[in-house]
Amino acid sequence: MIMSDNSASSLDASDVAARPLVKMVDVTKTFQMGEVEVRALAGVSLDIFAGEMVVMVGPSGSGKTTILNIVGGLDSASSGDVYYRDIDLAGMSDRELTRYRRNEVGFVFQFYNLVPNLTALENVLVATELVREPMDAHEVLDLVGLADRADHFPAQLSGGEQQRVAIARAIAKNPELVLCDEPTGALDYRTGKSVLGLLVRLKRELGKTIVVITHNAEIGHIADRVVRLSSGAIVELVANERPLPPEDLVW
Amino acid sequence: MVAVLDRKLFRDLRHTVFLVAAITLIIATGVACFVAMRSSYNNLVTARDSYYSECRMADFWIELKKAPVGEVARLGDLPGVTEVRPRIQFFATVDLPTSESLLNALVLSMPDERLETINDIVVRQGSYFTPTRAAEVIVNEDFAVRHGIKPGQWIHLLLNNRRQELFVVGTAISSEFVYMIGPGAILPDPEHFGVFYVKHTFAEEVFDFDGAANQAVGRLSPTVRARPQEFFRQAELLLAPYGVFAKIARKDQPSNFFLSSEIDGLRTFAAIMPTIFLGVAALVLNVLMSRLTEQQRTVIGTLKALGYGHGAVLAHFLKFGLLVGLLGGVVGCGLGYLLAEGMTALYGQFYRFPALPNRSYPDIYAAGIAISLVCAVAGSVHGVRLVLRLQPAEAMRPKPPPSGGAVWLERCGVLWQRLNFGWRLVLRAIIRQRLRTSVGVIAAALGAALLSAGLMMVDSSLFMVEYEFKQLSRSDVDLTFESERGRDALLEVERLPGVDLAEPTLNVACTMSNGPLSRDVGIMGVAANARLTLPRDAQHRPVAVPENGLMLTRALADRLRLRVGDTVTVQPIKGLQREHTVPVTAISDGYIGMAAYADIEYLSRLVGEEYALTGAQLALDRNAEARRRLDRALKEMPAIQAVNDRAALLQNLRETFLQNLWIFQVELIVFAGVIFFGSIVNASLVSLSERGREVATLRAIGYGPWEIGSLFFKESAVVSALGTLLGLPLGYVLMLLLARTYDTEMFRMPVVVHPAALLQTVVTAGVFIVAAHLFVQRKIMRLDWLEALKAQE
Ligand SMILES: Nc1ncnc2c1ncn2[C@@H]1O[C@H](COP(=O)(O)OP(=O)(O)OP(=O)(O)O)[C@@H](O)[C@H]1O
Ligand SMILES: [Mg+2]
Prior knowledge:
The complex is a heterodimer.
Chain A: H1 13-18, E1 22-33, E2 36-48, E3 53-57, H2 64-71, E4 79-84, E5 87-88, H3 94-104, E6 105-108, H4 120-128, H5 137-143, H6 159-172, E7 177-181, H7 189-206, E8 209-213, E9 225-230, E10 233-239
Helix pairs in contact in A: 4-5, 4-6, 5-6, 6-7
Chain B: H1 2-15, H2 17-54, E1 60-68, H3 69-73, E2 81-87, E3 89-95, E4 103-110, E5 121-126, E6 136-140, H4 141-147, E7 154-159, E8 162-174, E9 193-199, H5 200-206, E10 212-220, H6 222-226, H7 229-239, E11 244-249, H8 254-295, H9 297-306, H10 310-350, H11 362-389, H12 392-396, H13 414-417, H14 421-432, H15 434-472, E12 477-485, H16 487-494, E13 499-514, E14 517-526, E15 550-553, H17 554-559, E16 567-572, E17 580-588, E18 596-599, H18 600-606, E19 613-620, H19 624-636, E20 640-645, H20 646-690, H21 692-701, H22 705-741, H23 755-782, H24 785-790
Parallel strand pairs in B: 4-9, 6-8, 14-18, 15-17
Antiparallel strand pairs in B: 1-10, 1-11, 2-10, 3-4, 3-7, 5-8, 6-9, 7-8, 12-19, 12-20, 13-14, 13-16, 13-19, 15-18, 16-17
Bound molecules: adenosine-5'-triphosphate (ATP) and magnesium ion (MG).
């Protein structure tokens, strides 16, 4: 089943080419708002391969969050197919979707969404207690550079620190897929960069598959591929031969 | 501008419909309790007062040996006496062909012709006496109904040892017997005890009482009625030559005594129960109102910034509370009316009135709604304070994150480290949300107190029955002879068929005094080593009746300031009335108030006899056929004044009284359930609405709805369990208070605490905690968490 194989992140190129981790085929999404229908996605097809970093850019309302929600099992497509390792997400029950989110996906939210009544460490424990083979919560906190703030509550942390806790929480479950919705949106320049650096290290050192949403086209330079969206459709897909390290970004 | 705010108010109500419903339910229950109990109280008081005035209920009863009617009438000359009626009263037995056992009768004389008289009767069927025959009888309705006696029929009474045939002209009830309790009995027994009204001239003739009477009943002016001691003293002086056996003021008259204590108890309940509910409602409302204001802080800030004054914003929030109060009040009045209907009907089964209608009382409804509004306003205070404190600028900024910091529990180190994040979250929420936690604890404590006190009441009542029938007096049938008899009577009784054991009893009514303190009590003489009467100590262990001297109950000893080793003066009321000074040699405890016991031989000597008995207690063969033979034999036996069938009484008691206890328990559980359920649902929903985003995040991370629900469940379970545990001792205190209100000279209410009652309270609490959580769980399942994830609070 989907929940079993956490360590199958192979970087073997041929395997990657043969078998995308996530495959979206002609996905549409329509929201019903009373009388009017809002078309958020108008036929999106996209393959995401294991171990790559994809950055999605596009103007506000172009459908970035919608894609991320569908891929992350938070929302379902109106039509079209979404496969995770050849398993159709549309065919999953609520319970299976919960298991999918639990074992395969790590989410980083734009507004951190930390549990206010839990310390940084405990916010990570929230995730690790869910799965059978989590990473060590202390180590993950160390990884995001917050080992010394483990006992602080979210209210006692800065925005960037909170976002790093959120990232720690997302990866501590040791998921295959890390989905980040504007992880730098609420952060200043320097903090933003350090958060991005963290994501790049995750990909490189742990072999995670990472999808990052951003408004900021500049950030696209750190990705393996950049997906440009407009009005619910993919308008451009660019592969970077040599992704830049985040330190070299300027915006 | 106000109209817009009102529209907002309406929407607020709609958005919080479940919360409003939960609180309204609690308020409504409180108001319903108040209305139902006050209405039942009024119903009873009104019925009693109008019945008493309709029947010209007496203010005093004086029992005499035998006095000329003219002398009795002189009581009317005493100051404050407005009316006197000499009456003839006798105990008799009834022999009904339809009944196997011998039945007891109280025969009372009434004027030959219908005229307004003291202790009048209300004819229910047939008519008053006619001039046609001398031997006419009117039977009290309950007895007639139970034995199928109808006007136009003849019945046989054994009067003055002569079998008399009387023609039944009617059935009736009287204010003297609202509670159909025989003399000396502690429980009503309408099946085996009937009142028979005969013409006064007829009574004079059969009892050889020409121109004489053995009872005076009369009415007093209000001032004397309030303090009748002086009147009784003068009456005693006046009638002493004719033998004054007993002087009874209305407050001590058995029927009135029981009715009055019921009414007093009802008044106490009408104060306690609604207070609990409305208190809980006010607290719970506080939680909701503070949440509403929190939630709307930006709205409040914006309104203030726009130029709405403090007053307008405040009024807006108060209106919300007032609407809830009004709703609860009105619903409560409606429910209360229906509940009063049921309660009043129940009272009607035990207390016999010509009519006991359930009336509407606008003043009670007004009070109920007013109380409900006050409670609602009190419930809004906390929220309103928040509104007032908010500065517009501050209010419009998003709410600062809840203040962090470790709670004291975390310093417990190792223990804390071993908790998983769920428990840490739960415990922090409990410790940080002080208002909500205390409200939850208090509500659960009150719910548990109410329930456990009620269950203790039930156990105490059951214990009383058990104590009276199985521990104190263990006989199946008690016989009372018409007069004192010798040893031969006991032999005769022992030989009756079906009797396993017969023990003699000698009852001596006397005035017992210690200096200025005195009381009229009956001394009961029992055989040495009696097995059917076993006075007990405080630990319910039997205490042997001493060979010499008297054993007093603790209540009597306290009242007369006597201890073992003291002496007491005893003067029998009947017979030679010689005064004796006797030692107090033992003290027994128990729940039946004033009584004294003595060895039958010692007591016989005290009244100047070698060996005397006035009755016998029988333990019977359990065989039905033997029982029938005994009943037949008793019908043949002369000189029996009363047969007290305790086994049948117990049976009867089990059928009526215990059934009602069951209803009472269900009601209690429902009431407690309203508190538990209402307060938990409210707290959980409020916290769910605050933590929507947290719930959504956890869902996104991969937590299932039940795992998230368990966080909420743990929180309410911990809070409610804590409250329930505190509620148990509180229930005990409540029980002590209730027992005290029922504490009278006649009775003491035992306080019985069975572990089962505590367990039942805890289990009931558990069931309601789970039920409330299932309701909350459903909300969690249905929560649109994706939406909550997007929403920026
Ligand atoms: N729950 C919803 N109901 C109705 N319409 C929605 C809902 N969620 C998204 N939409 C609409 O779908 C479209 C795509 O929204 P989406 O959130 O994916 O945009 P986005 O690219 O993430 O924008 P942003 O950069 O502002 O976050 C928008 O037009 C939005 O209004
Ligand atoms: Mg978005």
